[in-house]
Amino acid sequence: MPTLREVTDYLDELYPPALAESWDSVGLIAGDPEQTVQRIHLALDPTEETVNEAIARNADLLLTHHPLLLKGIHAVTSQTSKGRTLRTAIAEDLAIFNAHTNADRARHGVNDALADALGLTDTRPLVPADELRLEKVVVFVPSESEQALIDALAEAGAGEVGDYSRCAFISTGTGTFIPGESANPTVGTRGAAEQVAESRIEMVYAAPLRRGVLAALRASHPYEEPAYDVLALQPLPTDQGLGRIGTLSTPVSLEEFGVRIANALPAAPVGIRIAGDLEREVRTVAVLGGAGDGHLEDATRAGVDAYVTADLRHHPAGEHLAEGGPALIDAGHWASESVWLPVLADLLREQYADLTVTVSELVTDPWAAVLSR
């Protein structure tokens, strides 16, 4: 059986944390990385109900999309829902892990699952992940310390290139310096010029990892004042990003497409809301699981016929349609994202044949009913 660390490392490969929004919280929330995992339970939300459901199924890990601790808390008591949720999980030795906006952007994530469920083909990102920038650290170190420094930088996330890790380029040369009167040099004497055989080490990393990489550099470097450069690299084209744009094999009316969505997604109390001419032909579609009215302009610029998302507000939606934007379909936050859970379950089963993976049967959409007269 794999350890929790092995499972979370695999999840980080699928959904790199560097893809997450800067405000987001992703990764391991509770649990011992060395504990053994035999059963994983998947749910969209880490609620008291889904934690209890996971415990009832003897799960070792509850894997969710939404984070439990997105905003800071100052106490973990039974007087709050988050406190009760976390206390119960810890008491029952249930680990909790989440992949949020990183799973929104990555392939095999929320938006790929939504696009596939609606029958879209030839998909590409609605908002490409151009902000996922790589940087390179160049550091000079005594040659006898180069391997230890590479290990430390790799542990902090540097040197990850595709399926390869600890990638570094090493060249050698001579470093020279004069320690000042208040210096405490590892090599050399105060006030005297010194020459040292040094290695130049180059390693790339995702820009959000910079703080940890530089902290590891300073902590592991033998010099009192290590010399290093940080270089920003031009981002490469990527098929990762927020949302997806795709094409229907056969165009349908907006009303027919709405019916297709209702049949494809899990049933939720909020149902499906449609804005636009119901007879409008729909062939190209943009999708963005969860709250998406912040990207109405992106959908308009993409020139799609319809935009499928959730949590659309009255005024932005009305203004969008008045300006000639694509038809809008609000499929509900929970329903538009929960289609990802069976996809992730299959990926985990393929990776770990000896694991038991279950998917929550709870509808954690906070809305209970839609009434009309």
- What is the CA-based Rg, rounded? 25 Å
Which spans of ≥5 residues are poorly predicted at pLDDT below 50? none
Largest sheet: 6 strands, mixed
Portion of residues in helices? 25-40%
Summarize the helices and strands and which ones pair or pack:
Blueprint: H1 4-14, E1 27-30, E2 39-43, H2 48-56, E3 61-64, H3 81-91, E4 95-98, H4 101-105, H5 110-117, E5 121-128, E6 134-142, H6 146-155, E7 169-177, E8 194-206, H7 210-220, E9 227-232, E10 241-253, H8 254-264, E11 273-275, E12 281-291, H9 296-302, E13 306-310, H10 314-322, E14 327-330, H11 333-338, H12 340-351, E15 356-359
Parallel strand pairs: 2-3, 2-15, 3-4, 12-13, 13-14
Antiparallel strand pairs: 1-4, 5-10, 6-8, 6-9, 7-8, 10-12, 11-14
Keywords: Metal-binding
InterPro entries: DUF34/NIF3, DUF34/NIF3_bac, DUF34/NIF3_sf, N-reg_PII/ATP_PRibTrfase_C
Family: Belongs to the GTP cyclohydrolase I type 2/NIF3 family.
